[in-house]
Amino acid sequence: MTRDRVLGKGLSALIKAADLKGVPSGTDSVDGVPRIPLDAIGFNPLQPRKIFDTNKLEELSDSVRQVGILQPVLVRELRSDEHVTRHPDAQTMSPLQYCVVAGERRVRAARMAGMTEVPALICSYEETEALKVALLENIQREDLGPVEEAEAYHDLMQSYGATQEELAEMLGKKRSTVANMLRILTLEADILTLLQVGDISRGHAKALLGMPPGPARLQLAKLCNSKDLSVRECERRVQAGGAKPPRKKARPKKAVPEDPALRALTTRAESVFGTPVAIDRNASDGKGSVNIRFYSDEDLMRVLKIMGVDTQL
After folding, report:
1. Which of 52, 162, 204, 283 is most buried per CB count within 10 Å?
2. Which residue in the list 104, 137, 149, 151 is annotated as catalytic?
3. Global pTM?
4. Does residue 114 lie in a domain region?
């Protein structure tokens, strides 16, 4: 079984498939599991989770203080030329020997609980493999924020030179899910900050992607926060170009039943292209148009490639 196949089976399978090493000479162990000094462990600067909830860390720290760390953390040995982040509360400045692959919250909680060492499994993953495991662990155990998740997807694609389809298969997700997450990174930096700290939701961000980049989009994002606009209201204002939609007196309109076959075709098309698709068809003569939404030059190239268009200029 390859490691890519193991990725779809969770962290437990990953640990079993890891190239685990024996207990290093001179290292304490319990039941064959090394006990590694906290001051010897550094953090991966590419760790997808950038924000740790202090209250949740304190809860985990209380648990660690009472019953200890029940599941070993996963670390790898550092190379001599590798840079990692040292915990700001480290007691010594001795050289770091390991980098956390999975279990950074447990390492931080252990330090908060006053521990000086943690049980750890030592593996030989390379940096990009370590990032895959860290991303998968966080997605499975506690959702990353949308910006952190999108940045982690982007880092994985850059590290592996992978396409969206390959990344989706690697993580066991739909390609459209990966594509929609990556689109979040096209929002303005100030909007990403609002999203990251929770002032707007994923739904707001998704709606805002329907507007062209620029001051109007940023203004609407700030308005969603200050006026506590619902996602539905945000969508209405996006359709109106960011302005408050004028109230119109409803006119009686004869309901036109939706063609189930046309709706099914639209759903299939959106699944293939990973973006909104609108099919406008005249029932009398069958003529009409197909509108496929894209959100950037890169997204346009992606859609055209799916359609079989040669994009080499």
Report:
1. 204
2. 104
3. 0.48
4. yes
